[in-house]
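User: Predict the complex.
Assistant: Input components as received:
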Amino acid sequence: MPLDNLLCGLLETGVNKLHQLDSSAQQRRKMLDGVIIAVTLKELNKPLYFVISKQQIDILAKYEGQADCFIRLNLSALKELQNNHQLTRLIKSEQLEVEGDIQLVQQFAQLLTEMDIDWEEFLSSKVGDVLAHKFCYHAKQCQQGLSQQLKKIEKHSAQFITEELKLAPGPLQVAYFCEQVSELEKQCLQLEARIAQRLQKI
Amino acid sequence: MSNTQENTTHFGFKTVEEDRKADLVAEVFHSVATKYDVMNDVLSMGIHRVWKRFTIDCSGIRKGQKALDLAGGTGDLTAKFSRIVGKTGHVVLADINDSMLKVGRSKLRDMGIVDNVDYIQANAEELPFPDNHFDLVTIAFGLRNVTDKDKALASIYRVLKPGGRLLVLEFSKPLYRPLSKFYDFYSFNILPKLGKLIANDSESYRYLAESIRMHPNQDTLKEMMNNVGFEDSEYFNLTAGIVALHRGYKY
């Protein structure tokens, strides 16, 4: 039991620390002032209650009253919640179940995901402008380089598998194979039709 | 002779007259009020936050209810309750000590909690509220310092609504012997020194350690709650019994 409390505590502290850095968070919390939202991850099957107030977000492991909105979702859907247009699609594919006002879910998802934190500004208050700029600049470059490298590696390993090891067919081979299959299908249909014709004659 | 014995009570390991205990406890808390939160974090290594969270989970408090945070001190529980009960609910922070109450009030106001909290200086033995008024009464780390515990419990029982609950979070008796040895060493040797270092007051923290030893253990306190009328009383040992949360219902 206290382990739950510990986790809730850490989560709550984390979320609120981030919110303190985001100047617009208070405005967004105001819209949901007094709302209680229950969130259950399907994998864990344990509800967490988010009590939203002007001052902060409180996270409880247990709440005996009625929450304003119940949300059940998969871990994988958590990431896609960021995009508001995805909500209906997620609900349709049963990755997300909502009981209550769907608008609340949208606002809640925005509250948690759309954090507009100026890390450079935050860092500059700690280590000074120059260092903060340098650090953020390099971090950004590293990130870009990394994503380029990843793309390259992906491409190379794909080529290695198809061309060198011949473990998997290349795209043209696959297309040719598909063509052959559909040709075969056509022939089969023709054959079937001819047999049916002959049978009718007899 | 017997008369003098009847009118005495314990103040830590000392025995004092009953009408002096409240003043002595008051002195302790006047002296530590400003450093109270820091000391809590240091002495319990932050674990008191988890204990308080567990208390809130057991409270069953919800929107629109009335809660009384007795001996609420610097208002940790009050702050949470105030956000959970919302605009339609009401929380009263009561403490017998005006220094603690002032620290609590300024802390909560700084946090922006103003709408639904009242601050009342009150003695737990004689609560200044009507009968059947609160859905929840909590007393966290306070019952130990009350002179007449039975009277306080009875008074709490009176102000609770039928269906309401009392939560008592208080130091208790550790479950395991080796732990209890270490705990004794910590509280009689290290704790007063830390108190001296941070709050410049070792006596108050010596009193804290002593008063914990004099506090009734888990089962005795449960019995005391049953005696004044609470039903379905139960307790949860936290951190191997160093702290216990007692819960009782009024039906």
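Strands of chain A lie at 36-41, 46-52, 57-60, 69-73, 96-100.
Let me know if you want any component modeled separately.
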